[in-house]
Design brief:
The complex is a heterodimer of chains A (352) and B (80). Chain A is built from 12 helices and 14 strands. Chain A has 352 residues and is an alpha+beta fold. By secondary structure, chain B is α+β, with helices and mostly antiparallel strands. Chain B has one domain. Chain B is 49% helix and 12% strand. Chain B contains 3 helices and 3 strands, in the order βββααα. Chain B has a 3-stranded antiparallel β-sheet with strand order 1-2-3. In chain B, strand 1 and strand 2 (14-17) form a beta hairpin. The longest helix of chain B has 17 residues, at 58-74. Chain B starts with 7 loop residues before the first strand and ends in a 6-residue tail after the last helix. The chains are: A alpha+beta (352), B alpha+beta (80). Chains A and B meet through strand 11 of A and loops of B.
């Protein structure tokens, strides 16, 4: 890597610092960005809560500012970002939460006016791959997806089970899911998920098979610049990957390319798939952002966050070919030590 | 017996399927058989070599051979 003083300085803001047991992708995105040879980076963390671990990872995050929750709307978000922009020369902003993307996409022109570049899907792209629209999306583009239906009330559960069969997968609009095997379990899960995430929930037919994820980067013109498939080797009780391994399978890469081409996807994405016993690839979810395991793409030779940084700045990014197959990640828990004064500064002043 | 071309094997008996991420540990004899199969030796030649080197009855070898093939097929390691 060229010495930092020979590289241009660039300030990048990143959300998703909640590197917890159900992690946001921000810390992994920052770790990958730190390996870019293009720029000497100053990283601004953008957090929602004072105990997001990334805030205190000072070797990765130079400075953190808190943001208003997405429910506060675009005006509050823009005001906060304008305030931050007065203090930091943020040139690129990389949002990493599903729930915040709508606001950031809506604000793209205003952010650009502030000198802040993003590289995000369009609102139409965001909507098309929404869990509520996934089956229609699959049908329109010829992708295998599970049968599903929206659920506004627990009273709809028997009908959903009748149509989709047991077991049933109940999913929150943005996060969380439960596999249920009986009406009693379904009612309990419905109460928990709707209490946490609101309605509608999504009821999805359960598909048995091997779970595979693909992290990809679309250039917005139909080209998939990078795709790295990964199989989860260890899964937490919340279904999150705790260890994983990169795979070599042309069918998976072809699927990612077909997705980027069909949608003209702009930005990072993650396809969550099941490969059935007969080899069919079924898309369970399409996440409109990088996954929490995104650092594995950099470790395997395709640094997707660094490439997205270039795309946001309008710099050319060649198609990335080849990656290390069998490259593994094993996540771990680490007790990060900080001081109450730092916590108080975040909690009271909204920055650190 | 023909292993899929992308299956990686090591002298220590470690088998890795890069298409699925599965890995397996073979005992020394199975590792030896797989290594020979990867060099292109056919089943008859490998079996003849085993009969020459080990004190095993031909009938027992056939049975164990079939068991090994069934396992390799089950693990999705063989070219169909």
């Amino acid at each position: 890597m060229p010495p930092s003083e020979t590289r241009p300085r660039l300030t990048v803001a990143v959300t998703g610092l909640n590197a917890t047991d159900s992690p946001g992708p921000g810390v992994a995105v920052i770790r990958a960005l730190r390996e870019t040879t293009d720029f000497d980076l100053r990283i601004i963390g953008l957090s929602y809560e004072a105990l997001e671990p990334g805030i205190y990872l000072r070797e990765l995050v130079d400075k953190t500012y808190q943001l208003p929750y997405p429910a506060a709307g675009t005006a509050a978000l823009l005001a906060r970002l304008a305030h931050i922009r007065e203090r930091e020369e943020v040139a690129v902003l990389i949002p990493n939460f599903d729930a915040e993307l709508f606001n950031f996409i809506k604000l793209e022109p205003e952010l650009r006016a502030l000198g802040i570049h993003t590289f995000l899907p369009t609102l139409a792209q965001l909507d098309a791959r929404d869990k509520l629209n996934l089956a229609a999306f699959g049908a329109a583009h010829g992708f295998g997806t599970p049968a599903s239906r929206p659920m506004h009330s627990a009273f709809e559960l028997p009908a959903a089970a009748e149509t989709l069969g047991w077991p049933l997968v109940l999913k929150g609009r943005y996060y969380d899911a439960a596999v249920v095997h009986s009406l009693a379990q379904a009612e309990q899960a419905f109460a928990r998920l709707s209490g946490l995430w609101g309605v509608p929930l999504i009821a999805q037919a359960f598909v048995a098979g091997q779970e595979i994820n693909i992290a990809g980067l679309g250039d917005g013109h139909g080209r998939c610049l990078s795709a790295v498939p990964m199989r989860k080797l260890t899964i937490t009780d919340r279904g999150k990957a705790w260890a994983g391994i990169t795979l070599e399978d042309e069918a998976l890469l072809a699927l990612a390319r077909r997705f980027a081409e069909a949608t003209r996807w702009r930005g990072g994405f993650e396809l969550e798939l099941i490969r059935t016993a007969s080899g069919e690839l079924v898309i369970l979810e399409i996440n409109p952002r990088f996954p929490a395991w995104i650092y594995l793409t950099a470790a395997a030779g395709q640094n997707q966050p660094a490439a997205l940084l270039r795309l946001a700045l309008g710099l050319p990014v060649p198609m990335m070919e080849g990656y290390a197959v069998g490259k593994m990640f094993v996540r771990y828990a680490w007790d990060l030590i900080t001081d109450h004064t730092e916590f108080q500064q975040v909690a009271a002043l909204g920055e650190l | 017996m023909k292993l899929k071309p992308n299956i990686a094997t090591s002298e220590a008996g470690f088998i890795f399927n890069p298409a699925t991420g599965d890995s397996f540990a073979a005992n020394p004899l199975a590792a030896d058989i797989l290594a020979r199969a990867k060099t292109g030796l056919d089943a008859a030649a490998i079996k003849a070599d085993i009969l020459a080197r080990y004190d095993v009855a031909p009938g027992q070898l056939e049975k164990d051979w079939d068991d090994l093939l069934a396992q390799l097929r089950d693990f999705n390691l063989l070219d169909q």
